């Protein structure tokens, strides 16, 4: 460890490197990562953002070695609150998370233009949602544990809708 000390504890700004190659650069309070910093794991994943009492907590961005990124709110080392998950193949999710799972309101977009906007529970579509197919037609429906139970009404052109979903060009 190289950095500031107080009462023989890591306190203030510092850089710590472990034998496995993991590295943290940022703020410490009483020997704990606390405040803004960047942690890079030996395998290559990294997190930049807020830490609280040695945990990822607050606002930050995590990058996995497979190319996924999550930027948003964190609580106790988990995606928790509102955030954006991006996959390297073009998929994306913007919405609420609870304990690392999609939960609450959110919009999932496939790389081919399809979208689901609506309610999520424990990582799966659950409740009311709107689906935009690859041809630009929108439908409303009800989902349970990731399975569509029924469509509500017919297909419609989203350009004539309330603007909740918009066709991407």
TrEMBL record:
**SMART domains assigned to the protein according to its UniProt record, in alphabetical order:** MORN (SM00698)
UniProt keyword annotation of Magnesium present: no
Q: Which residues cross the membrane?
A: none
Q: Which InterPro entries match?
A: MORN
SUPFAM superfamilies per record? Histone H3 K4-specific methyltransferase SET7/9 N-terminal domain
Name it: PIP5K5 protein
Is Nucleotidyltransferase among the key words of this record? Answer: no
Record key words, sorted? Repeat
Q: Which Gene3D superfamilies match?
A: Histone H3 K4-specific methyltransferase SET7/9 N-terminal domain
Classify the source by domain of life: Eukaryota
Q: Species name for this entry?
A: Symbiodinium pilosum
